Description:
Layout: H1 2-26, E1 33-34, E2 40-41, E3 95-101, H2 109-119, E4 122-128, H3 133-143, E5 149-151, H4 156-160, E6 164-165, H5 176-187, E7 205-210, H6 211-217, H7 222-227, H8 233-243, E8 256-259, H9 264-268, E9 275-277, E10 283-285, H10 290-305, E11 309-310, H11 315-320, E12 324-330, H12 338-342, E13 346-350, E14 360-364, E15 369-372, H13 378-402, H14 405-410, H15 415-425, E16 430-434, H16 446-451, H17 459-478
Parallel strand pairs: 3-4, 3-5, 8-11, 8-12, 14-16
Antiparallel strand pairs: 1-2, 5-15, 6-15, 7-12, 7-13, 9-10
Helix pairs in contact: 1-13, 2-13
Amino acid sequence: MKRFLAIILAMAMIFTLAVSLTACKDKEKDDAVVTDNGEVNNNQSASNPLDMMEDLSSADDFAFDAWVNEGFMDYPPVGGNEEYKLPYYNLEDKKVSFLYSSMIEYSDPSIKDSIKLAYEIDYTTVLVSPGELLNRFISMVISGDVPDVFFYGLTPALINKGYVQPWDPYFDFSVGLWIELKNSMDMVKFKNYHYAIDMSTGPGEVMWYNNTLFEEMGEKTPLDYYNENNWTWDTYRELSMKMTQDLTGNGVPDIWGTFLNSTTAFVYSTGIDFVSLNEDGTAVNNMKDARVARAMQFYVDMIIKDKCAATGEGDRDMFVNGQVAMLQGGIWYRTPFKEMIKNGEVNFVPFPRDPQMDKYYIGEGFGSWQLAKGSKNPFGAAALMSGSRYNVLNSAYENRATNDDESWLRSEWSLEMNEWYNECMFNDQVRPTLICQSIFGLQDFAGDIWYRPTQGEPWATIAAELSPRVDDSIARALDLD
Length: 481
């Protein structure tokens, strides 16, 4: 259950990030917020907090050596597994502060106790509203009243202007505690350094399918195609067309082959997003890329030409009611499927592979704990992060160790499904595609990207119109002026 719980936590944090980023961009005035120390923030935020930044960057920002682990703490490893031991930090300063949004609950006493027991850290929090988070962080750094740790989406401008610093001088990402996340954290390296770390992440986009419908219609399931190494866009489309049934003859399907929630899963499966982030700190506008055009056309054809894909609202209700054979969505979609899971009526496979790729590329978001430049206790901050990661793993281990069939069902899950999730989503055939939409402000173009193609407008026309605007959005995000 460890990875499953980790993904659920990651998705919750990513959702929080999306809301926070939108709030920071759009909200000019927030309600007063009382922080943990009783301070009241009557927020008068600028429409774009990045506009207030001074350039604090210098050549010395990269004058460091990567940290080498000097051993491990004398503290029980997760589940008795020696690979999950806490790295050693000899902390002279035990105080750590971090700034976060009121939408993130980080005051669980068990978390604080585990970190205190391991490193004797005494951490304090500065709590603000989502709309004030970025503004407050920038102000604190400029004033010299710097928090050690800051939770926010990866923001290139903060790196380029010298407001956050790399974690590399304080972490060995190859130790067991972090090794499962290393590939994901490497994916968001910026200028070849790790500016963002996460407590848990992983691929979450799957294709749910209704076993009962496939049995009744005598068709091979997505799992059959997956086991044959033939689960691709093409077989998905063929299967969707076969499973679409107009039982009443009124020209409207009573059973849809599939339900598509967005264009992005197809784009991610090509190995890119609409914008890609390079390790050297540059970005690539992919709006006119042939891979994006191919993915968009395939998505549109399934809806308009093949008429085998439902869209809009009510996806999970339709799936539960037997009106949809396959549902594109997150692993967290499981909540309404509790009875179907209990009765063995539902299963899932990874989102289908682009036939021009040799791996399953699945979009992966990333929460972002960042180390403020000017942190008074960076090693303490690193220890705080290690203790937090330990707690995530240990809590998941304890839940798994004490689970029985009934507790699995209470979580709308099952032991069998959990094992299958780990098997099919964490192997050398699955690769992450970094979701860059919030990093570069692409939420501004969501309506154009998702809606206009389904109305028959050619993607080439849409891409030509949006591409200059995306270039501007990239420039603003990087803020290299």
